Amino acid sequence: MAKIYITGSMDKSLIRVASSFLSKIDLIPIFCTTSNLPARISKLIECDYLYLIDGWLDLQEACIECYIARTLNKPVFFENKIIPLNNTTLKIESAIYEVTGYMYREYSQKRRDEPLFLCRMHFSYECSSSGLSTSTISGLLNISEQAVCWMLQKYPKEYKFNPSFRANADKISYILTHKT
User: Is 52 exposed, middle or buried (0-12, 13-18, 19+ CB in 10 A)?
Assistant: First the structure.
C-alpha cells in the first residue's frame, strides 16, 4: 500500500477526516508530527506522495517539503485543488528563479508587486507553452482563471514594449530549451 505524507496547517479533526478518507482509497497517511525538519524530510522521503493542506505556504517547513518532493519527482497534491505537479513546472520555476531571483512561493501568493506580477506572467506563459491548461495554471498560482487568460493575452505586448521583461523572457526560454 502506498504512503502519502501530509503537511500544512493541521488540527486534530482534520487529521481524523484525512486518515479515514485516505485509508478508503488505499493510501496510508503519514502526518508530520514534529517541528524537527530532518525528521520530517526523512518521513517524506519514505512516502510515495505529498499532500499539502491549505495554509501550507505560510509554513516554511511545508514549502521546503514541497520543493524536496517535487525535486524527487513525487506527485504533489493540494487540499483545495487536487493538482498533480510535474517536472515541467519545476523546470519553469527553476528558470524563473535563476533569471529573476524570485521563488515560486513568492510569486504564487496574492501580492501586487510588479516584479512578482511579471514572474506570474512568465510562469503562466511558459506553463501554457508546455501544454498546461489555464485552470491548472490558475490553481498553481492561486489566482483566477480569468487572470491567467488576461496575462496570456497581455504577454505579447509586455514582451514587445518592455525591454527588461523581454530580456528576462528570452533568458527563461533559453534556460528551458538548453538545460533540459
Answer: buried
